[in-house]
Amino acid sequence: MKTKYWVMLFAAVAAACVTAIVLFPLPQGVANSAELYQNGVLLCTVPLDEDTRFTVPAPDGGSNTVAVSGGRIRVEQADCPDKLCVKQGWSRTEGYPIVCLPHGLVIQPKGRQVDFDAAAH
Amino acid sequence: MSRFLRRLTALAAGLVFLCSCGISASRSVDVQFTAMDTFIHLTAYGAGASTALNAAQQSLLALEKQLSVTEADSEISAVNNADGRPVSVSEDTAALVDFALSMSRRTDGAMDPTVYPLVRAWGFTADEYRVPAQMELESLLPLVGAEQVDLSGNTLTLSPGAMLDLGSVAKGWAGDRLADDLKQAGVSSAILRLGGNIQTVGTKPDGSDWVVGIQDPDSEGMLARLSVRDCAVVTSGGYQRAFTENGKTYWHIIDPATGHPARTGLTSVTVVAPSGALCDALSTALFVMGTDRAADHWREHRDFEAVFVCEDGRITITAGLEDSFTLMDGYTEREVTVLR
Q1: Residue A113 — very low, low, confident or very high, per pLDDT cuts 50/70/90?
Q2: Which of B39, B78, B82, B234 could serve as a FRET partner for B228 with CA atoms 20 to 30 Å apart?
Q3: Does a structural domain hold residue A1?
Q4: Is residue A80 part of a domain?
Q5: Number of structural domains, chain A?
Q6: What's the whole-model pTM score?
Q7: E-state strands within B53-166
Q8: Test mutation, B18, B27, B54, B222, chain A, max A CBs within 10 A
């Protein structure tokens, strides 16, 4: 009888471990969505598996046009002075955010799985 | 209470304790903000990570105020506007200027903190790009060079007309500072992304190396990855800021010796070393030097490792990266030479 309790306990511990692994996965792989922040506030999360194009209005009256295509995301057009966000091109890597400083916009590719912890660029 | 129940309770309590330790050690805390003209993303793990990161954010914003060349009330602006008069600066600023000058001497001026008048002439400081006339560049060249700066204790004097810009070392230096602060606060696992400057503290919470991607200078993809721990990774590339005029591309990395964008056959240089400031300064300097001079510099000093990407796609890495450098899928056909 005692042995049976210990077996049940072992099974419970194993189940708890599996649950922990599912709840707190280790990062590996590719981004499958992107979070859009404006001045540090999360605006929305965009899936990267569906091609789309939309405009994000900026507080100063300007805007950024964001495009998703082939699992990647970029700022296609912007009326900021430097256009550095457009020049950054496509991203699909969690460690490689696209940033428009004048409009306070940050596009952060996200996924349960990512290739890199960071990107040197 | 039966003996079994007592055992069970003790075991459950132990498990809860172990799980909470495991979770608090592996849970990440992220702080994201903009500073130093770039997007900052700091991630730290473990107990105390949240407090340490908030302190790091405040520390970085304070450093930015002192070091910015564009903020009118920064110490650097005060020096640049002093018209040759001595200016008293903080210990931090003096230490960073001293470091930048030492790197200028070490690299024979390939990285120079006084290159700002040339960078401005090309319009890279205000994103109003233009190709300056040769005469204009020649008139500015005498204002460039470590000898234009006199640092005596905390007193900084700049030759009239010369300008100081710590942009090529400030982010790396700030990364070092933040990493030290986090370590002192008891954080043993963190990754700091100051734009494309990466600084790692320790290893990942599971003890494995951090994986840092190196951007392909010719596309948005990642060319290779580096496994690193407790060090910085900094890339300088022509692609980071450039403009095209009459079919010719001009980029923001200016050779202080000629006043023109550095064209040495390289499109990017990534430097790996414990010190972010060293990485930052050297990534610019090695880009200006070109592969051959950069290789000599590596052989002479051996206090850093590097990845060089050439315009023709060839890649050269230093011997210390042989085990940590991996080409990504789609790039495995690239020719990689190992410097020894």
Answers
A1: very low
A2: B39
A3: no
A4: yes
A5: 1
A6: 0.78
A7: 87-88, 149-152, 155-158
A8: B222
* CATH classification code of B68-158: 1.10.3980.10
Q: Do A24 and B240 touch (CB under 8 A)?
A: no
User: CA B304 to CA B106: how far, in whole Å?
Assistant: 14
Q: Sort out which chain B residues have CB atoms less than 8 A from A2's CB and list them.
A: 4
Q: What are the tens digits of pLDDT across the range B320-340?
A: 999 999 999 889 999 999 999
Residues A1-16 have pLDDT tens digits of 567 788 888 888 878 7
Are the beta carbons of A100 and A78 closer than 8 angstroms?
A: yes
Pick A40's closest partner by Cβ from B23, B32, B235. Answer: B32
Which of A30, A93, A106, A117 to mutate to test binding with chain B, by most B CBs within 10 Å of its CB?
A: A117
Contact A117 B38 (CB under 8 A): no
Q: Two tokens at B255?
A: 């050779």
Q: Are strands B189-194 and B38-45 parallel, antiparallel or unpaired?
A: antiparallel
Q: Would you place residue A27 in the very low, low, confident or very high pLDDT band (cuts 50, 70, 90)?
A: very low
Does A60 map to a domain?
Answer: yes
**A16 within a domain of the structure (yes/no):** no
Cβ neighbours of residue B35 under 8 Å, at least 6 residues apart?
Answer: B60, B61, B64
Q: Do A24 and B23 touch (CB under 8 A)?
A: yes
CATH classification of the domain holding A60? 2.60.320.10
Q: Which of A48, A55, A8 is nearest to A31 (CA)?
A: A48
**By residue range, what is the domain housing residue A60?**
33-110
Mapping DSSP onto H, E and C, the string for B244-281 reads EECCEEEECCECCCCCCECCCCEEEEEEEECCHHHHHH
Inter-chain touch B4–A119, beta carbons under 8 Å: no
